[in-house]
Amino acid sequence: MIAPIQLPFEQRHPLEVAPQLRDLQSRRAVHEVRTAVGDRAWLVTSHALVRRLLADERLGRSHPAPEHASRTGESALFGGPQGDFDTEQVDHARMRALLQPHFSPRQMRRLRARVEALTAQLLDDLAEQGPPADLHAALALPLPILVICELIGVPYDDRDQFRAWTQAAADITDRTRSEQGLADLFAYGRQLVARKRRDPGDDMISRLCATDSVGDDEIAMLSMALLFAGHETTVVQIGMGALLLLADPEQWRTLLEQPGLVPNAVEEILRAPGRGGDGIPRYARTDFDIEGVTVHKGDLVLLHSGAANRDETVFSDPDTFDITRWTAGHLAFGHGPRYCIGAPLARIELQAVFSQLVPRFPTMRLAVPTEELALRRDVLTGGLIALPVTW
Fold first, then answer.
1. Is 3 helix (H, G, I), strand (E, B) or coil?
2. Which residue windows does the record flag with biased composition (Basic and acidic residues) (predicted)?
3. 319, 311 in Cβ contact below 8 A?
4. Within 13 Å and on the Cβ side, how many CA atoms surround 41?
5. Is residue 42 packed enough to be buried (19+ CB in 10 Å), middle (13-18) or exposed (0-12)?
6. CB atoms within 10 A of CB 184
7. What is the pLDDT of residues 291-328, one digit of tens each?
């Protein structure tokens, strides 16, 4: 009998798909694996199957016996099951109904000018600082934090504290640290809710406080979950997008000469890095068959969007970064009922960054070889530790 594959896969270069993952994908679509903590799971790597299963109601985030569920890691946030098995779908629908108005097209149109202004200010600061610089610290990190703070109603001055908590909550190696970070983040959320009830503003927490039948704990939970998701992933996307362009000067020049390609470049930036960690975790709500593999109720299924986004049956020459490519169909934001609610905001931020960064710093280049760049391996979202540049 062949032993299950052990996660995580080794990634030798920040921009590569792990060779072992690429090998698995070439063989079949579903693979038995062991997670980083040794638990059994099924890994799905084909685009068609990942897309279909993301929308399959037979998979969810909850588990009928959470204490016995397979885990992907030690993070209290995403390492294991979430929610109540009996009410998960109703609870998820309520959560989206409460948050969706804050990401409506009208709200996003209002926010775009502000995002562009914040981006311009950060680039002004970068120019004043002069080279060399860390583009991660100067742009990729502060912009999403500034934006999500304004949207939710979180004081930007608290950024160091709440980022420490979100980083702790996302720790995939230390359960105690992760649980404490999550508890600290929720307590902070409760304090913000109390403050907004006393002194409301023009922000999401204040509007939720004015919504009937929404309690303080629910508002704190929703707002802190959004605080985490709304900045951590976009920090990673900006950093990796800048790296993709800087690592291929021809692509940088193409975007400089053809600024109308920015929206398309953003979609390729979302597709190309092959991110996805060890896959999006889902638990089977019933027994069913996936491509000849029998999945039993409670089994952990990992839907690898990064592998799916480099599926050669969907994207020609998928390992090549090409901002002129038509990238419709990538799964960076998921698919189906759980499609990322913040996708419009992430696109606005990425478009603001790359429509301004390239013309403002046309001669920007990496200050170190790409292979010397290090990725975060201790937190859920990964991403670059630093991005040294010069110009």
1. coil
2. 60-71
3. no
4. 30
5. buried
6. 18
7. 999 999 999 999 999 999 999 999 999 999 999 998 88
